[in-house]
């Protein structure tokens, strides 16, 4: 199935999604985080936001991704396309209409788009976001979320929506994290990328939704096509659905493949030599992949471990700072699929430190607890070997 056909699926309704929403979403804050009803509205709002953002990214890939005049550069030199801005505008518009009191921690800001030199890019962002938001309502969606053809979305309103993601994060609050296109390099080359959204309450991730338009629905049967959305709610399990919202499958949906360690494709994001030593120690094969699609593959059983280690420092500074939106959605997906995730020393991840993950020591996600212990031990051994070599090399 082509990306274009996959995107067309987003125009059609799913009869299987719950269409019965309550009028007061804030009441869910008083529920137990693991109640069967907890975060039901939030889950469906998040699925709608991610699905429509995926429509944006598919359209951008088909029409604009090869037009270099529509590409900006971030300070870290990673490519940022109009899709980043349009997808975040869509997600934040939906969140702001559904939950106006909730702060949003997002990756993008709209300052660059406001510059007159980027007028053409701004116009395309507005067109893409508006088209996605004005798609006909499907079962389970509400017009009051800012969806449907009767809503108008001005350029300034969409720029403000992007800027809604400027919250500083922190503990003791309820907040959303948004990564409109995680893995932009994978996106630009037609590989794996993800549209990522999570809800954090008092530093605990309670909801994660990840859209992966280029991921095979059934890895063992490519003829089934591409395009998945992964959904996890704390205490309620993890599921995969298609981009059109059908075919819900509980994760993991096949026995875990115990021979692969998933890792980043980007060398500056992780310590690849250290990961190789760990993989060799555990007799695992390395499998590089962009974005939080790695978490999705692990959750459904396509690997044994997802390993991300701090990249070597350059001039005494870490070349890449992990952000909460990089791991919050994937972390709950793995946990609700029966796996375990910690930092590389076995300590719980912390999502209440602000926009960043603090002085993290890497990320270890595994399909089960026994394997997790072996991976942490292998990391300690590999680090000891690495430190000993450094000490020996020092005059």
Can you describe this structure?
It is a single chain. The protein has 11 helices and 14 strands. It has a 7-stranded mixed sheet, sandwiched between helices. Helix 2 crosses helix 5 and helix 3 packs across helix 5.
Biggest sheet, spatial arrangement of strands: 3-4-5-6-7-8-9
Number of beta-strand segments: 14
What share of the residues does DSSP label as strand, in percent?
15-25%
Helical stretch tally: 11
User: What are the secondary-structure elements, in order, as H or E?
Assistant: HHEEHEHHHEHEEEEEEHEHEHEEH
Largest sheet: 7 strands, mixed
Rg, alpha carbons: 20 Å
Oligomeric form of this entry?
A: single chain
Mean pLDDT: 86
Low-confidence stretches: 1-6, 9-31
End-to-end Cα distance, whole Å, is: 59 Å
Level of helix content? 25-40%
Secondary structure class reads: alpha+beta
Shape: globular
Concise structural overview:
The protein is α+β, with helices and mostly antiparallel strands. It has helices at residues 3-9, 40-63, 82-98, 111-114, 119-133, 155-163, 184-188, 272-281, 293-300, 328-336, 369-393; strands spanning 71-73, 79-81, 104-106, 174-182, 194-201, 204-216, 226-233, 238-242, 249-250, 260-263, 285-288, 305-308, 340-342, 363-366.
């Amino acid at each position: 199935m082509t990306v274009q056909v996959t995107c067309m699926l987003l125009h059609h309704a799913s009869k299987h999604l719950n269409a019965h929403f309550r009028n007061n979403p804030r009441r869910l804050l008083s529920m137990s985080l693991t109640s069967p009803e907890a975060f039901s509205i939030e889950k469906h709002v998040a699925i709608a936001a991610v699905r429509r953002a995926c429509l944006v990214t598919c359209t951008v890939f088909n029409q604009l991704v090869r037009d270099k005049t529509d590409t900006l550069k971030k300070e870290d030199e990673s490519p940022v396309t109009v899709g980043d801005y349009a997808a975040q505008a869509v997600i934040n518009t939906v969140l702001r209409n559904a939950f106006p009191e909730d702060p949003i921690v997002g990756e993008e800001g709209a300052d660059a788009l406001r510059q007159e030199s980027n007028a053409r890019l701004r116009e395309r962002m507005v067109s893409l976001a508006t088209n996605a938001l004005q798609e006909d309502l499907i079962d389970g969606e509400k017009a009051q979320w800012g969806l449907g053809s009767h809503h108008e979305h001005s350029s300034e309103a969409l720029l403000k929506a992007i800027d809604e993601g400027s919250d500083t994060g922190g503990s003791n609050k309820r907040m959303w994290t948004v990564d409109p296109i995680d893995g932009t390099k994978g996106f630009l080359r037609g590989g794996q990328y993800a549209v990522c959204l999570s809800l954090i309450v008092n530093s605990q991730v309670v909801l994660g939704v990840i859209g992966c338009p280029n991921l095979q629905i059934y890895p063992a049967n490519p003829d089934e096509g591409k395009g998945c959305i992964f959904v996890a709610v704390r205490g309620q399990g993890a599921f995969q659905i298609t981009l059109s919202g059908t075919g819900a499958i509980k994760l993991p949906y096949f026995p875990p493949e115990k021979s692969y360690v998933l890792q980043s494709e980007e060398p500056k994001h992780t310590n690849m030599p250290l990961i190789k030593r760990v993989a060799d120690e555990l007799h695992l094969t390395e499998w590089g992949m962009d974005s939080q699609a790695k978490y999705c593959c692990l959750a459904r059983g396509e690997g044994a471990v997802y390993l991300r280690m701090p990249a070597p420092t350059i001039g005494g500074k870490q070349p890449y700072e992990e952000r909460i939106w990089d791991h919050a959605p994937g972390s709950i997906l793995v946990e609700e699929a029966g796996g375990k995730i910690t930092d590389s020393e076995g300590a719980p991840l912390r999502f209440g430190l602000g926009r960043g993950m603090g002085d993290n020591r890497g990320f270890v996600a595994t399909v089960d607890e026994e394997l997790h212990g072996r991976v942490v031990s292998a990391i300690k051994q590999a680090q000891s070997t690495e430190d000993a070599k450094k000490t020996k090399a020092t005059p």
